[in-house]
Amino acid sequence: MCSNFSYVAYSILTIITYKNYKELYVCTLYSTDVLTEEQKQIISQLTGCAYQYLPKVCDPSPYRSITGECNNRKPILGASNTGYKHLLNPEYEDGISLPRGWTKSRPINGFSLPLVKKNFLARSPPNDHRYVNGSECIPMFRSAPGEILYQETRKIIGSIQQKITYKDWLPMLLGSEMSKVLPRYKSYNEDEDPSISDVFSIAFRMGHTLIQPFIYRLADGYIHTGGIDPLLRGMIANKAKLNSQNKMMVDELRERLFQMINHTGLDLAALNIQRGRDHGLPGRVRYLQ
Questions:
Q1: Are the C-beta atoms of 16 and 35 separated by less than 8 Å?
Q2: pLDDT digits (tens, 9 = 90+) for 11-34
Q3: Packing angle between helix 37-47 and helix 2-21, nearest 10 degrees?
Q4: Apex CA 197: angle with CA 208 and CA 179, to 5°?
Q5: Which residue of 30, 71, 155, 268 shows the fewest CB atoms closer than 10 Å?
Q6: What does the alpha-carbon distance between residue 127 and residue 117 come to, in Å, rounded to a whole number?
Q7: Hey, how many other C-beta atoms are within 10 angstroms of the C-beta on 199?
Q8: How many Å is the Cα radius of gyration of the chain?
Q9: Residues in the chain with pLDDT < 50?
Q10: Which of these, 32, 4, 5, 6, lies nearest to 18 by C-alpha position?
Q11: Residue 185: strand, helix, or coil
Q12: How far apart are CA 51 and CA 281, in angstroms?
């Protein structure tokens, strides 16, 4: 709730600021650029956001907290219900909150951005036969002994997941870049921010491109049978989908997502692209730079 109230407050102030100061600034202008620290502190207190920055009293515990608080020497780092970490400043069409490509007549770097659905929507393109007259939009919308048993189980499961992620999966995904992206652990750094970055929340959707168009079932003795075990064995025994420039995501996700419960199948690729614009993420070239 704090983030919602804060977002609304800053959005209103940014609009007012832009109207009053736009002639003095050539680059993108935000309300935080002209507000004093005292004024920003008042907004933080009124919206309830200041609570998460109050000094935390962390009780000694051998277990990690569910919320992420007190898991680091700086208790708030990596905690839930905190904002994304921004690697670059967000880029919006109006410098405030409007996703790029929203206004057809407004070019981005000299070019008009196509509708996300046309690329691979918020708005549906006129030539999509599944939408009537192009008028529809894609919707974007836990007792002491028991506690110890739960925490120990949670710790073991977390360790197994970390092992699979960092020892088995990431080396295969990143290949020779693994040592550069994730060098060997040397020592604890309390200034290292473990918060999820905004760009990761979009980039990790690359997992959608790994999904096969068919789910294979493989039982003992290569006999097809029911249950989830044959499905898991089938995924393990079959190679990952080969990605190509014209087949990054299977049609089942691009044309028929949730079609059984919606009168129109959704497009996962379009939703991903629009979500990136919604977050104001700069283009890939900016991150490479």
A1: no
A2: 556 655 555 555 544 445 555 566
A3: 150
A4: 80
A5: 155
A6: 10
A7: 20
A8: 24
A9: 1, 24-27, 119, 121, 142-143
A10: 32
A11: coil
A12: 28
